[in-house]
Amino acid sequence: MPWLELAIARYIVFPRACRRLDWQGASRKFQDEGARVLDLWNTLSNEQLAQPILIRRFAGIEDSSRNWSVVMTVEHLNIVGSRMLDCIANLRQGVVPESEARIEDVKPSTELAADEVRARFVQLLQRASSSEAASSVPRGHGPRFAHPWFGPLDAHQWHCLLALHQELHRKQIDL
User: What pLDDT score does 132 carry?
Assistant: First the structure.
């Protein structure tokens, strides 16, 4: 992302969103955006799902992500969502993940069939929903784990980022 956009996101937009969203609000947003992704998916043919589309650039989207198909975008949501849920679970237990979070590790592979990507997305939504039975973590408490763009984040911030990331890529699919 351009440095000014990243600075605004890191120091203004993201912190404001984390203050506005409590744990349940972030969970609701994640699930609502996931349902919208599935609704959009269901309106498209297999050919449309697989066709990469170059979208216009908008705030928060990397240039390398702008020419993805819906399947690729949802595969990315699966990869990132699963890793974020693991990270959040670790932080909730007071454990900082050992491996570094890297943007290049979450690109879609394009090797999975559309049906498999969709099934994994449904499983991700179910996993996130079932993990909500555990108690929430207050803002600013517990250990932190570094995000490549936003720096060290606690469990609450990662939880908010999970929802905001889902929203960002839902918008990408919606364009």
Answer: 67
